[in-house]
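Example 340.
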Amino acid sequence: MNDTKEREKMIGKLKIGSELLYLTREEVTNAGLTIGNILDLTKEALIAHGTKNHEMPAKIGVHPFREVFYHAMPAYVPRKNAVGLKWIECYPSNPEKYGLPQTTGLLIMNDVMTGCPVALMDATWITAMRTPAVTALAAGALHPDAASFGMYGCGVQGIEHCRYIVHTLEKLEKIFVYDINPRAVDKLIETVQPQIEAEIIRGENPEAVAKSCEVLCSATVILLEPLAAVKDEWISAGQTILPCDLNTYFDPATLKRADRYFVDSSEEHELFASMGYFPGGLPTISGETGEIIAKTLSGRNNNSELIVCSNIGMAVCDVVVGKEVLMQALDQDLGRKLPL
Ligand SMILES: NC(=O)c1ccc[n+]([C@@H]2O[C@H](COP(=O)([O-])OP(=O)(O)OC[C@H]3O[C@@H](n4cnc5c(N)ncnc54)[C@H](O)[C@@H]3O)[C@@H](O)[C@H]2O)c1
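Predicted structure in complex with nicotinamide-adenine-dinucleotide:
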């Protein structure tokens, strides 16, 4: 479908300028996007980012409590006619204190031609999906022959990472998982093992996982002071490390000594550094994830390279996936129209 037809479809379903489509979390989840769709859409978003065909200012935010942030994440991806804003919050102690997710949020989508808001949707599912898609795409580009993957943190992100990673690491045989909460490990294994062929193994401790896996990923908590739960001496040449929790879980010394330190967005990482999340300093950035996916930058140069690729989340991915959710929802008459 070309862009004009896409907009015609929208006009046929929605009175642009006088109403918008509201989608609940369940409706977003059930709009029909598969892991394959999300990987394709995220890849397009990363390529747009890597080739500078996008607009995405660094997140601005407010911080009512220490370790808590709200971020406003606007983006425009011309190739996809996707423009919008995600308003997301991260409360690391929500699960323990309130039984609520760490991360919730809303996504507003606009009509590029007129600017009118056309949709408001829950952003929890989109965040839960596009994040592992970025990790999986980066892993596939940086370490395609890996047979072992280690996942630290077995919550929402950990579960989805294990489901996504098998799509890009085709030789994967073993996935080691670790969490301080053993029930989270049980839940991940119960949920994901029936869906994938690679064997999921309960990691004994962070050290055993670090020493068993070629590719490692963390999605635990984002803290100002690094936990450094994975000690630098457990990490060896040739490993690929993909943190989703910034500078928290791996020893900052590893990030500093890596042969190359890639990030999804240099601007975002510089911003987080200015907020104090890299107390020992931001490692020297070698390039961006989108450049690797777009192949304007080389991935792994040799088998002994230690590579870190830190992805903190980009709005270009949210608006590209959100646009497709909107089009699918309109197609299936999901959600409810609200007057503006
Ligand atoms: N990079 C991105 O784009 C992006 C997007 C969404 C979430 N995140 C981050 O990913 C992290 C996980 O998010 P989530 O939604 O899966 O949260 P979650 O609460 O569902 O899961 C986090 C898991 O980490 C575990 N954990 C906490 N501290 C740990 C430790 N010291 N060692 C081992 N395990 C530990 C918890 O027990 C929990 O099971 C958060 O830091 C969140 O901010 C990043």
